[in-house]
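Title: Prediction job returns without error message
Component: structure pipeline
Severity: low
Priority: P3
Assignee: unassigned

Description:
Job completed but the reporter wants confirmation the result is attached to the right record. Sequence as submitted:
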Amino acid sequence: MSDGKKKKYRSLKSMPFGGNALRLSWKELLFVVPAALALAFWVIPYLYGKWETFDFSEPDFRISYNFRDDYWVYEKWADYAARNRDVLFVGDSVIWGMYTDNAHTLSACYNRLKGRQVAANLGIDGLHPVALEGLMRDFGGAIRDRKVYLYFNVLWLDCPEFDLSALPRRDETGAVKKFAVMHPRLVPQFDDTLYLYDEPLKTRIGNWEERNLPFYSLQNHLRNAFYDNRPLPEWMAANPGRNPFGALRREVSAVEREHINRTDSWSASGKGEFSFAWVALPDSRQWAAFLDAARLLEARGNDVTVVVGAFNTHLLSEESLETYIKLMGDVTDQLDGLGIKYIEIEALPSEDYGDASHPLGGGYQLIAEQIIEVKF
């Protein structure tokens, strides 16, 4: 290489890489990178949450069935309810009211008996205890210093699969049978003892991000509320002429509008007997998670009362009924031993059930009366 070429090469090496305005020292990076991450993951969701509005003031409000997987909305509703109601009913679709309109849920019946809007409906369809514990831990932090009625639905123990304690099963080809875990984003993501939860690592990481970084919770909310439950790139491809920002709305209606008050009971089309493979409490994953949720709520200063019973025993076979009675005895014995208050609901008339676990409107009225009668 000639001396001229060597000199030119050295001068190029000495030139700075890129513009000075785009280069940061390591000290500057120590400030800029955390600030950018905090802005994206926490500040922007916080500001968006302040900008977005929900009307939770409607009498006997409950979250829309279409928002049952939108934990961003649940967190906002829980915060409002904890600030504006003295009593909170927490649980699955039995609390939410699968076969009723808003005016005939358990909390609505309780409010009528009290003569004012004292209670809030914090139920969600499909909220099994393992998911309940995750929901309370990561999205129910506002539920503090309130009277909480926590419903235990024994139906989640009706077989090892529902209990999430079963080992994976294989079909005749040897392939593992898929089992649809309800509210999969709320279950423990990296627990190798949760055998039936079979999601790829990428999905598990995404679920962990939603539960720990508000940006991803907001992302899922926007997808659910405005983008037809599609990822933004997919929505844009399906709507090439629309501005994605134009789809956003400040006021979001999250109140249930579609469910009606059903009057036909489970036995209207003919009675039958059912047998369940009840899971014993020492072996139950759901029961252990339920106790964890109860303790978590108590640790936050709530006055927790567990509501047990209200199951439709009219449809159980004789053998299954005997096992059920023993199981519920074990439930109340453990609650007594742990010092957790509970109310054991008496069985309702057969005509007040819509299925194995969901009461009809008249059944909720009877349950509300029993709850109010109990004084601790």
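Comment from assignee: result matches the submitted record. The domain at 57-373 is CATH 3.40.50.1110 (Rossmann fold).
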